[in-house]
Amino acid sequence: MKKALICFICIVVVIVAAYGAKNISSSKQVENDTTYEKGSEDKFVEVETYKENEEVLYKYTLLNSEGKNVYEETGLYREPNVEQLDNEVVRVGVSAGSSVYQVRYFDTINSKISEIYYTPWDEYNNKLIRFENKKMIIQDMFDKSNYYKEVKLDMRDTAEPNSAIKSAEFLDDNTVKVTYFSEDDEEITKKIKL
Questions:
Q1: Other Cβ atoms within 10 Å of 168 Cβ, number
Q2: Nearest Cα residue to 169 out of 140, 144, 191
């Protein structure tokens, strides 16, 4: 019965993630010199709403430090959440349902755009922490060939891996702290040197 329940929950999570992935229905790299006036809310990201077939959709456009359009994503069913991480990096997140969200990072100085990450836990100096298949992954957000490390954790089985995690954070350039629930349902805290 327990395995059937876990299988059912896994199926629900996959369906929710697939629906969230549908939110990114159209994205393109912009190769022209179109210059936009910087918005008052955020000078690197413009968010717009529009209607398509009576449905309200969202679009965001990434602007480099000169205000030039370098990337846009359209057809989003939820409003993007924009956060300036430091002087150079902007984080754009879109909810994919329940506790899952999709995040893309943008380096405004070098016009670098990351791949999409699902539910990253923390960011620090262009690195991020995320979880996948009972592993904590610490990597460079723009190019994992610059930095990539996997740490196997004895996390408890859950349909959504992030639900076994209590916290995960960078303490400094060289240390990550993670608190999670083990297979024996114990709360475990580890400090990991990078």
A1: 21
A2: 191
| Spatial CA neighbour of 164 closest among 119, 123, 131, 122 | 131
Geometric angle at alpha carbon 23, from 165 and 16, rounded to 5°: 45
CA distance 94 to 101: 6
- Round to whole Å and give the CA distance between 106 and 141: 9
Phi–psi pair at 11, nearest 5 degrees: -65, -45
The span from the CA of 85 to the CA of 71, in Å, is 19
Host H or E run for residue 118: strand 117-118
- Residues 75, 163, single domain; the answer is no
Q: What is the pTM of this model?
A: 0.71
Per-residue model confidence as pLDDT tens digits over 48-58: 898 888 888 99
175 and 111 both lie in a single domain: no
